[in-house]
Amino acid sequence: MTTKSKVAIIGLGNIGKTxxxxxxxxxxxxxxxxxxxxxxxxxxxxxGNLATPSDTADAIKNAxxxxxxxxxxxxxxxxxxxxxxxxxxxxxxxxxxxxxxxNGGFKKIIGEKESAGQLNAAILPKGATLVKAFGTxxxxxxAAAAYQHPEKSVLFYASDxxxxxxxxxxxxxxxxxxxxxxxGLDQSIRIEVFGDLHExxxxxxxVTVSEAKSKI
Length: 216
Ligand SMILES: NC(=O)c1ccc[n+]([C@@H]2O[C@H](COP(=O)([O-])OP(=O)(O)OC[C@H]3O[C@@H](n4cnc5c(N)ncnc54)[C@H](OP(=O)(O)O)[C@@H]3O)[C@@H](O)[C@H]2O)c1
Hints:
With 216 residues, this protein is of the alpha/beta class.
């Protein structure tokens, strides 16, 4: 019998809440935490017994895969605050390094050729493994395209450590998507917003596995 990696979701806004909903729909337990414990408790009441509300430190301690569904700058804060607890964990980074611009749109807040994935990898807590995933679609599509029939939609991911790929692909599958690896973290920019494999970049839509593979 194989035991699945335990999952924690930190940050329960648009993306974190949707990942929590999809995970529970996939019949997989999940620890959920946010800045305010009451937000986790309220969401757990909606999601039922598979969701366990936690504070952030306990959620990290109890899980193997930690989804940091918070803004780019907050990931850096959490690395500093929970560096010790994050050692040995697989960290999923869905962040898009953007902020509102003066025209009602969004602009990148890091260099044009930089990616959040590579910048976060450079400051990763010792002993942790970073995976870029779950940020390729807007929250609306992440909810609406999960468990699509007859062919699933794809979530792209990037990782440098191939030993974690099976766990990541299993987690993506348990969220109702097929997983397609784009490469190492140096490919993160392709799956972040404005990238050629992002819903809000050149790709412009959700894709199936065959379409995804033709784009890589
Ligand atoms: N929204 C999208 O369509 C989309 C698509 C792709 C990727 N992303 C990326 O996903 C990430 C989350 O985006 P979002 O739209 O879900 O943001 P959001 O709705 O603003 O949610 C962020 C969540 O993080 C929590 N949080 C903030 N500081 C925290 C801390 N120190 N510890 C624990 N939790 C904390 C917030 O709690 P409070 O409510 O208390 O502030 C909130 O629940 C971002 O990096 C974004 O770039 C978003």
